[in-house]
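Students often ask why inverse folding is considered easier than folding. One informal answer: many sequences map to the same fold, so there is more than one right answer. In these notes we will look at a single instance of the problem. The structure comes first.
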């Protein structure tokens, strides 16, 4: 089962994707040897960081441009557990939006390719000083969106 949290509309650029592979560490599991549910947010974050770095919209880019992007929503659906010592892959996708927000979805697969967890996050773009919501994407992010729409990102 793969749930589409942000359906892609016709005429909108396809989501951009990055994948990260990790191995479940001992400190991440409970006494049954399965990953504690609270760690999945950091797994999502690992893939979100890789995606931002790949496409030039990393946290450092936001910091340099004096824009904050706090999480507004975070959701996870658990299908089956991850176990100690096993590899897993996190896929992150960013979905195109002309609003001053960032929509990501995430899919975590075990080493057999089975979907274990999916989820999404919504980040709002704000002024870091006043904490006021931005009404439009800031210039550096608008350039990213323009390049995406024009097919310059792969």
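Output (designed amino acids):
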């Amino acid at each position: 089962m793969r749930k589409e949290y942000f359906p892609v509309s016709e005429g909108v650029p396809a989501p951009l994707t990055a994948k990260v592979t990790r191995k479940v560490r001992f400190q991440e599991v409970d006494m049954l040897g399965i990953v504690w549910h609270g760690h999945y947010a950091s797994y999502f974050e690992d893939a979100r960081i890789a995606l931002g770095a790949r496409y030039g919209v990393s946290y450092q880019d936001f910091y340099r441009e004096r824009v904050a992007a706090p999480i507004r929503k975070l959701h996870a659906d658990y299908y089956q557990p991850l176990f100690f010592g096993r590899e897993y892959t996190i896929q992150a996708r960013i979905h195109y939006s002309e609003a001053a927000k960032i929509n990501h979805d995430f899919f975590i697969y075990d080493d057999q390719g089975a979907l274990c967890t999916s989820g999404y996050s919504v980040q709002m773009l704000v002024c870091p000083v006043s904490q006021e919501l931005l009404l439009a994407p800031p210039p550096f992010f608008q350039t990213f969106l323009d390049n995406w729409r024009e097919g310059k990102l792969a």
